[in-house]
């Protein structure tokens, strides 16, 4: 298959590669860092230009290994081992969470097909109906007094020997029978599972990118773009639960925010296709673009707080979202500043360099967003629109 590089702008490619030719010559002379084996690990100075991303990581590079050895290097020690595994483990965490969520937050479609009532939930509601908190909640949303007056009392037949207690108990059971199916109604799940898919795609693409990019310039070119596409997917789909469930009852703002972030994400992916965007000089610009996309999430969060700031679920989900923002912001600072390896070059080549911390912070941020998503589902399942 022809590499995308071959079809890219020849001028920009030449500009990008122009400084590499002397280094290419060096590669053949210096690539004997470890031993004489087939695939030695090499030093930074021996790398071809396209692999030179971080001069503070000095040793243990794989460079242009055969594809088989590159794939098998997932099980060997080099300076990308933890970069691969931090996001591969993150991928499996999110795969497990998706299976868990599918089983515990079934979709509307599954619910319609089964047409069963959740007996556990029904009994819980039945026994807790006397609770003033539950009654207060139901009263404000479904108008409990009217429910009793209009639907329960007119349909009851009273026996002469019935006590007040047994009448009240009967009314309570009738009310429960009416409300239980309403309590089981579910809002659509796709925004939540879109986020889970976006997170898994991002983590898997990132892991593959770190594993395979060293194979050749062609692989590096393609895998880096898949990596940026994955990051954009994670950021865009992170907006979906926030915007969809917060503005579920306001189609104008829901569609406005969702269209904006989707277009922003597509534009970011298109910009990242430009070869010059890959060069080290553009590291701050790359980080900046993704930061802008993430920061734009503050607008719907503030809007949500203005509208629903008095609701516990909204405050809780906002707390998770702020924590997520903190994790991502810290990750971007570490990524852009290349901390801690810039302070002690060569000391964090295998363990502890900035990209590994960046990966861990991304997984932590995505996990807090998952928690926010579960809060949104519970909120809208109970309250509806
Ligand atoms: Zn990475």
Automatic annotation (TrEMBL):
Pfam families named in the record: HlyIII
Record's keyword annotation contains Zinc: yes
Molecular function (Gene Ontology), one example: signaling receptor activity
GO cellular component: membrane
Membrane-crossing segments per the record: 84-105, 192-213, 228-248, 255-276, 288-307, 319-337, 357-377
Highest rank taxon of the organism: Eukaryota
Keywords: Membrane, Metal-binding, Transmembrane, Transmembrane helix, Zinc
Protein topology in the membrane: Multi-pass membrane protein
Signal peptide extent: none
Gene Ontology BP terms: response to hormone; response to sucrose
Annotated compartments: Membrane
Chief place of localization: membrane
Alphabetical list of InterPro entries matching this protein: AdipoR/HlyIII-related
Binding site for Zn(2+): 210, 355, 359
The name this protein goes by in its record: Heptahelical transmembrane protein 4-like
Taxon lineage: Eukaryota, Viridiplantae, Streptophyta, Embryophyta, Tracheophyta
